[in-house]
Design goal:
By secondary structure, this protein is an alpha+beta fold. It contains 5 helices and 7 strands. Helix 1 packs antiparallel against helix 2 and helix 1 runs antiparallel to helix 3.
């Protein structure tokens, strides 16, 4: 499902939508990430076929290194999903994977975003800020790459940031209201 679900008894009313500020750029990035992941998969399969066919014992090592190049693309594919806020949870739509429903009770923590450059990069740029949200069990396993790369362990997480979500302060406020009390 690519569009957020219509309000129902499961989701409650739609409160706000927080898409990427540049939807065309997001769409092109999604196509490029998908092409990169498909290319890596084809390359690994080709290297393994050659290793078996020609009995080359070191070629599988090249396949392992090529497969490792998928980690940054997997990270990019789920790091900043489009977020729609409902009364009973969040609807997350990543770049290339299926959308996921995250009930408010599954939110586990809010952490500083360690995967973006904070502040201004140029004098014309807006200041960047962001947070990572860890989720207990409601997200697919591909979201664990965010936790691993951000230093949060194997916890599944997603990010929200000023440069990747419209009306970031309202989104962060909605998430903070529903986090478990420490």
């Amino acid at each position: 499902m690519t569009h957020p679900p219509e309000p129902s008894s499961d989701t409650g009313a739609r409160l706000s939508d927080h898409p990427h500020p540049q939807p065309g750029l997001r769409r092109v990035t999604g196509w490029l990430v998908a092409a990169g992941l498909l290319g890596i998969a084809a390359g690994v399969a080709g290297l393994l076929a050659l290793a078996i066919g020609y009995r080359l014992p070191l070629l599988p090592l090249a396949a392992v290194f090529l497969g490792a190049l998928a980690a940054p693309l997997l990270l990019l594919s789920v790091l900043h999903p489009q977020v729609t806020v409902y009364e009973r949870g969040l609807w997350l739509k990543p770049l290339i994977w299926r959308a996921s429903w995250v009930p408010w009770g599954a939110l586990a923590g809010l952490h500083d975003h360690t995967l973006i450059q904070r502040g201004k990069r140029t004098r014309w740029d807006r200041a960047r800020d962001g947070h990572l949200i860890t989720v207990a069990g409601a997200l697919p396993p591909v979201y664990a790459v965010v936790g691993l790369m951000a230093g949060l362990g194997a916890r599944r997480a997603f990010g929200v940031a000023t440069h990747s979500h419209r009306d970031y302060p309202a989104l962060l406020s909605a998430i903070r209201r529903h986090l478990p009390r420490a």
